[in-house]
Specification:
disordered N terminus, two-stranded antiparallel sheet, 196 residues, alpha/beta
Length: 196
Amino acid sequence: MAGMKTNSDRKAVTRRGVIAAFAATTLFPAPAVWAQSTTTEGTRRNVSSFRVAKWQDHFDTLKNGVILSDTQSKVLQYWSEDESVYRMYPTSVPLTEDLTRLGYTTVTRKVEGPSWRPTPAMKKRNPAWPDYVGPGPENPLGTHALYLSWQYYRIHGTNDTRKIGRRSSNGCIGLYNDQIAELFELAAVGTQVKLI
């Protein structure tokens, strides 16, 4: 009968729909969704399969607050000094192991509306990059930056949200602009930082 779908037509449409949905989510993934559940014993579990760390496993004290950035799970966690504030954010991480610096550092400076200059190594890899980009929508550091005691390393925002959840930076840790703005208010100069 004209206009009626047979079982084989329905299966084909379903298969096409599944393939299209798979392709869409693979090519254009949604931003990471963070969800936490609490078991009856009070244990936090991250249902997104990201590792949730305990600050005690990495720091001796919460003095000045702490930031733990996991470059494998692409997640950054923050605890305030009195442990009353805890935040978890999805991040971008360095493109390669060679660009990844691990270990302890501290926040040495905070800048709202940062400017950006490529490092000498970045300029060598890509001579077409500009020598300077001022604050604004074209700035790779986004709206806020936490400068670390390591030269050239930052925790900063990004105006390119496709980078979050991926290996996409030249050494820095990137967050969505609204999330770096929140972390910027929480973290002080002197906040302890560890990249693992």
